[in-house]
Amino acid sequence: MPHGPYEDVRVTGHLIDSGIMTRIMDDIVALDGEFETISFEVGRTNEDPSCAVLRIRGTDEVHLDAILGEIGQLGAEPVDAEDAKTSPAPADGVFPEGFYATTNLETAVRIGGRWTSVEDPEMDLAIAIADGSARTVSMADVRAGELIVVGHAGVRVRPLERPRDKQEFEFMNSEVSSEKPKALVIRDVAHMLNRVRARGQKIIFVVGPAVVHTGAAEHLARLVTNGYVSVLFGGNAVATHDIESALYGTSLGITMAAGKPAAGGHEHHLRAINTIRGCGGIRDAVEQGVLTTGLMHTLVTTQTPYVLAGSIRDDGPLPDVITDVLEAQKAMRAHCQEAGACIMLSTMLHSIATGNMLPARVTTVCVDINPAVVTKLADRGSFQTIGIVTDVGLFLEMLADEVERA
């Protein structure tokens, strides 16, 4: 008979076809724990959930708590639930010891014997409780004395399951590959965007300068004009090179028409930034008739919001670029919580940053010629990301054509 403390946990959902039970068992074994199946009721139909009760045993309380914390992220919750434990933040910008680190999954905490949903799910934050409600809070925003959830007791997480409706996203379970039939995949993306828009949710596009370099900015502008871009995230580079293209016909000094270096072209991006700074900003340049074409012009004229987050390597930068990273996070975070879909286009750092802020429920598509970019997103917790390995220029042209046909 095994010894050591144990806890009975319950798991509910589509446990078999979503692979949740297998993952839970694998995690327990990987952490040198033991489990015993107390009961397992399999749903009778495709729509009925299954329910399992497992007895989890560890070598001591610390070991058991580590196991429960790991499988808790897969939806395993104690049968005998207790209220979440809290501890006050010791200082501004400091979480208490043992704080619960959030995932991007739907989460609830038990307060006063009742389960309460945590507002604004996002990974790598903490949970603050006040007046019977719970919300995520970043380390930078926490204030001394706020009650922060500590430990895993009284916390319940709902894992993502495989979609029951195949029409929701045909390639949801596809692996990162350059060999998928692109026309079919892009058609699925277009249909998904239509469903998200019909639900009134935001569609975020995270854009890198390769969109401009490949000549695809005009196709993204078509998507903006047709109402498929709710907000654009990017950096100084994508806006600068789009404006350079509009003012000088070059991107990074390479002519857009012939693909050849222009005389003095290496100065064009600096001259573009200087022109916009002289106008006061991108919107001012549009209103003054200085900037008359391009992606940024389209965003302004359609009143589509954008967030440009700066980096240490920025030239200028453009006046619209948010150079305080915490302020940039806040600006992006507000849009992320309202999103239904996010399309990431050839920008690894901005994609990872956005992925860190997105709830797991947001359908996320990463398009890049390099499959390692999608892999990095998944490694950093954005496991819901669907990878499409292809040229971003061809992708955007085909996607714009597809939504216009629809």
Characterization of this structure:
The chain has 13 helices and 19 strands. With 406 residues, the protein is an alpha/beta fold. It folds into 3 domains: 1-80, 2-Layer Sandwich (Alpha-Beta Plaits); 81-161, Beta Barrel (conserved putative lor/sdh protein from methanococcus maripaludis s2 fold); 166-405, Rossmann fold (3-Layer(aba) Sandwich), CATH 3.40.50. A 7-stranded mixed sheet has the order 5-10-8-9-7-6-11, with no helix packed on it. It is elongated.
User: Main sheet, how many strands, which sense, barrel?
Assistant: 7 strands, mixed
CATH superfamily of the largest domain: putative lor/sdh protein like domains
Number of helices: 13
Share of helix, binned:
25-40%
Portion in beta strands? 15-25%
Architecture (CATH level 2) name of the largest domain = 3-Layer(aba) Sandwich
Termini gap: 64 Å
Global outline: elongated
Structural class: alpha/beta
Poorly predicted ranges (pLDDT <50, ≥5 residues)? 163-176
CATH top-level class of the largest domain: Alpha Beta
Number of domains: 3
Radius of gyration: 24 Å
Count all strands and give the number.
19
With strands numbered from the N-terminus, the spatial order across the biggest sheet is 5-10-8-9-7-6-11
CATH topology annotation of the largest domain: Rossmann fold
Return the average pLDDT rounded to an integer. 89
